[in-house]
Amino acid sequence: MTWEHLERGSSPVDWCEGNYLVSPDIAEFVNTISNVLFLLGPPFLIYLFKDYGKFIQPAIHLIWVLLIVVGLSSAYFHATLSLLGQLLDELTILWVFMATLSLFCPRRHFPRIFKRSRKRFCLSMTIFSIAATALSFCHPAINAFALMFLAIPATYLLYQELKIVQDQRVYRLGVRNTTILIMAIVCWINDRMFCDAWSSMNFPYLHGFWHILIFISAYPACVLFAYFFVNDERPESRPTLKYWPRNDFELGIPYVSINYDKKFDDPI
């Protein structure tokens, strides 16, 4: 990485929003500030998952911290349009996805070669992530398109779990999550592929809506896979999907509550 890659505008990617129209210091103003949910949401999720992290899997907090890094990296990229910012933005997305998959994918979905060993699965995902990180430097302009394909295995795994889940609240959250993901992808594609049309309507801000919708989709997906993980590997903890601030309001903030009356063994 040379110094020129730190310079503003060094990225080959420039989204639809006009540059430096609001502030002389921020290239894409709306695309920058629309990352605010990535900064405000995870600290609260760390609080809601404090018992889950204590009794089930401490690494759940790594996911929330990585989401903060995603928000910071994305804000830096859209503020500067530098190549370094672009790579940080894209690679943090890659790593948060791979970390969630490695830590919380139910073992029954592991390929047979791993013999249901999570250590082997995590090692292979780490190697894949390192290789993908190296390849991302080769053709940075196509990285964003490549990342979109991560939605395919994630949606497939979610579909497989929703087919067998018995808790209808979990099922409904999965359906809502998938619907919001589709809306987010539609915004991303329209901003990337049909910029002229949206600019002619004076609304070049769909990538900002992508940031908002993808967070609203991403964190419940992590919640769902955290639920599937404990339901699969620690069923004695009797996981329950709940909502804050009111448990009877399913459009609130979802989290996984566990029965920690029993003293479990050390976290997996």
TrEMBL record:
Q: What is its main location?
A: membrane
**Annotated positions binding Ca(2+):** 14-15, 17, 19, 28
- Could you say which protein family the record assigns here? Belongs to the alkaline ceramidase family.
Q: Which cofactor does it need?
A: Zn(2+)
| Example of a GO biological process term | ceramide catabolic process
Would you tell me the protein name for this molecule?
A: Alkaline ceramidase
Location in or out of the cell:
Membrane
Topology term for the membrane: Multi-pass membrane protein
One GO cellular component assignment for this chain's record is:
membrane
Coiled coil region boundaries: none
- Give the enzyme's EC designation: 3.5.1.-
The protein's matches in InterPro entries, at most eight in alphabetical order, are given as:
ACER
| Record: residues binding Zn(2+) | 78, 207, 211
GO molecular function annotation: hydrolase activity, acting on carbon-nitrogen (but not peptide) bonds, in linear amides; metal ion binding
Pfam families from the xrefs? Answer: Ceramidase
Key words, A-Z = Calcium, Hydrolase, Lipid metabolism, Membrane, Metal-binding, Transmembrane, Transmembrane helix, Zinc
Top-rank taxon, per record: Eukaryota
- Tell me where the transmembrane regions lie: 29-49, 61-79, 91-109, 121-137, 143-159, 171-189, 209-230
PANTHER family according to UniProt: ALKALINE CERAMIDASE (PTHR46139)
- Which function does this protein serve? Hydrolyzes the sphingolipid ceramide into sphingosine and free fatty acid.
